[in-house]
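Incident review: delayed structure delivery

Summary: a single-chain prediction request sat in the queue longer than the usual turnaround. Root cause was a stuck worker, restarted by the on-call engineer. No data loss occurred. The affected request and its eventual output are reproduced below so the record is complete for anyone auditing the incident later.

Affected input:
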Amino acid sequence: MTTKELRQKSIEYRKKILQYIVKAKAGHTGGSLSCTDILNVLYNEVMNVSPENFASPDRDRYIQSKGHTVEALFVVLADQGFFAEEELNTLCQYQSHYIGHPTRKVNGVEQNTGALGHGLPIAVGTALAGKLDKKNYKVYTLMGDGEMPEGSNWEAALTGAHYKLDNLCAIVDKNSLQITAPTADVCNTDPLDEKWKAFGWAVREIDGNDVEALKTTLQQLPFEEGKPSVVIAHTTKGKGVSYMENVLKWHHGVPSADEYEQAIKELDEALLAI
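Output delivered after worker restart:
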């Protein structure tokens, strides 16, 4: 895809994320909007994974550690053809598989996630298995900056570096807000780049809402031979909707009818401006 097409795709994804969150009357709105561009570029430009090869041992793996922003993942998986998009009309309804966190009952989901700090350990194990099996697949995991204080992350970071897992890429969606307050006020983990470097990872910092920067960076993997890679993606929580951006209540706020109408209007205007 061209940069213009990727930008258009991100806006369409954001509109659908809001559509299904409003219908379900539940969802993690702000974080889903912040990571939309990352998922867009991973699935449309970077990863070797599709409905056709999802059973293949040679496919790339994607594990969403920040599982609470599953709405973004579901919308992208539907667009990729893993399931019919109309199934998302059952989001968060009784007996639906489309619940508030990723589950392997949904086609295209690699692992059940949501307990923060678990995605990276799973990704490390999956990458290590690839090395042992002499497979060429890559493993990607998306983490939130709010889960960085979890000790399991740093055990996994040590292990990934120890085993030289250069088939592994962690992406930190650094939108600087979590459920109760700014991440720096809850448990400050800055400077993140120096911490990852100290644990033996190759680090890149980029604008995580810039699809061109994401595409260019993720196509350079591994950043250093013999080291796992981490992308610290600086994003805006609630990206694309003016009244949601960097506003704490939209961590899991659901727009009213009027707010939804305003959000779609802003996104449509942004689409026309590309």
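Verification: The mean pLDDT is 97.
Action items: add queue-age alerting; document worker restart procedure.
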